[in-house]
Amino acid sequence: MSTEARKPPLQIALKIRRLLGGKAGWNGVAVQFAFAAVLGWIAYEIVSNARANLENQHIAAGFGFLRNNAGFDVNQTLISYTGSDTFLRVFVVGLLNTLVVSVVGIVFSTLIGFIVALCRLSPNWLVSRVGELYVELIRNLPLLFQILFWYLAVLAALPNPRQSISLFGIAFISNRGLVIPQPIGQAGLDPFLVVLAFGAVAALALRIYARRALFLRGQRIHIWPWVLGLVIGLPLVTMAVFGLPFTVELPQLKGFNFAGGARIIPEFVALTLALSTYTAAFIAEIVRAGILSVHAGQMEAGASLGLSRGTTLRLIVVPQAMRVIVPPLTNQYLNLTKNSSLAVAIGYPDLVSVFAGTSLSQTGQAIEIIAMTMGVYLLISLVTSGAMSIYGWRISRSLGA
Predict the structure, then answer these.
(1) Rounded Cα–Cα distance for residues 342 and 366 (Å)
(2) Cystine design at 164: which of 15, 172, 215, 288 (Cβ 3.0–4.6 Å)?
(3) Alpha-carbon distance 160 to 174, whole Å?
(4) Complete DSSP assignment for 149-190
């Protein structure tokens, strides 16, 4: 009898598997190298083709165009800007406009979403049906349609500035936007802001210290007098020493338009309303699902302790539900930021409109401008995801998960 025949069948099978596995492993490596080579060849062809097209159109590759004068104006800027500024300045202006509409939209959509979710969970039949109607109506209409609805059907139908709607005589709404009082900085503004920031940070540190003292030692510290002194008392002392930090400039109707004050353009209002209400419909369902994921016994336990329904939700149920809410809520924040690019439909000067639109048409630097725009949206998404992941981790740790 041969040696191979005397070996147990299991050992022979394992030997054959090792031989075949090694061969299959080398085949897998070869396939990966071949795939990488194909990708490299495709990338080389794309770059060569793009370079040839740029040379034929006499367009210099690179980012030197950012130093050229833009030659066009932007109707909303958070920093000083004129038509003689560079394309780099245009990029910063568009980026800031995108960020401000995204941040404002996230704040309002979160507030509206939580309110609608609580309405849907309300034992009141009418309130619950109103919340359900809002969710089913808003999230089943296209976002672009809602943006155009707010801009064309609501804001454009408002009266002109001479017949504008007055809000307590200090703010005015018309088809040219919302005009509000504008603060004008004075000599005491810088020390006032420094003291205010210091007071806010110190008050937050006191709150953290008081919470740790309560949970670790069972010692309850009343910090509200110190907080009032830091947040209100110190700024008042600073105002008494350095003078008023700012004055308020009220808008006044002169001729056919308002002079003075700060104007919020209707494009910003329409875009913010559409993004907030649309995203809030999805957030409401996320919050409702998160609250329903918490065991019903938590509400009963709160009621047995004499807590009201609102207090039980705020202190017991919602903190536990946040572990379920945060991951899909992050996706909605990312969607809102990316959906802000639809602002080009109504002429709001966001990053896509003024940089990937007007600047691209004037310079022809398609590769560089599109790459910068893609990089910005990718960076915003990564930062948002990272911040929400840290927040979710802190919630899980605080709940002992």
Answers:
(1) 19
(2) 172
(3) 5
(4) IIIIIIITTSPPGGGPEEETTTEEEETTEEEE-EEEE-TTHH
CA torsion sign for 110, 114, 119, 120 is: positive
- ∠ CA 363-355-55, nearest 5°, is 25
Q: In Å, what is the CA distance from 282 to each residue of 163, 271, 311, 329?
A: 37, 17, 25, 9
Instruction: Tell me the per-residue pLDDT of 337-388, one tens digit each, with 9 for 90 and over.
Output: 999 999 889 989 999 999 888 888 888 788 888 889 999 999 999 999 999 9
> pLDDT higher for 142 or 13?
142
What is the value of pTM for the model shown? 0.79
Contact 260, 182 (CB under 8 A): yes
- Cα(184)–Cα(204) distance, integer angstroms: 29
Report the distance separating Cα 33 and Cα 24, nearest Å. 14
Q: Where are the beta strands (DSSP E) in 230-373?
A: 246-249, 252-254, 257-259, 262-264
User: Closest Cα partner for 340 from 271, 265, 267, 266?
Assistant: 271
Which residues does residue 184 pair with via DSSP β-bridges, in sequence order? 247
From residue 253, give the alpha-carbon distance in Å to each of 89, 165, 174, 264: 32, 12, 12, 16
Average pLDDT, the chain: 83
Kindly state the tokens that stand for 293: 């994921």
- With a CB cutoff of 8 Å and minimum separation 6, the contacts of 79 are 89, 92, 93, 96
Please answer whether residues 69 and 81 qualify as being in contact, where contact means their C-beta atoms are separated by less than 8 angstroms. Answer: no
Whole-number Å distance between alpha carbons of 53 and 58: 9
Q: Which of 257, 104, 255 is nearest to 179 (CA)?
A: 257
CB 109 within 8 A of CB 332: yes
Instruction: Count Cα neighbours of 25 within 13 Å in the Cβ-side half-sphere.
Output: 6
**Predicted local distance difference test score (pLDDT) of residue 4:** 47
Residues 114 and 283 sit within 8 Å (Cβ to Cβ): yes
CA distances from 89 to 16, 95, 272, 279 (A): 67, 10, 24, 31
> H helices within 57-175, ranges in order?
87-120, 125-138, 143-148
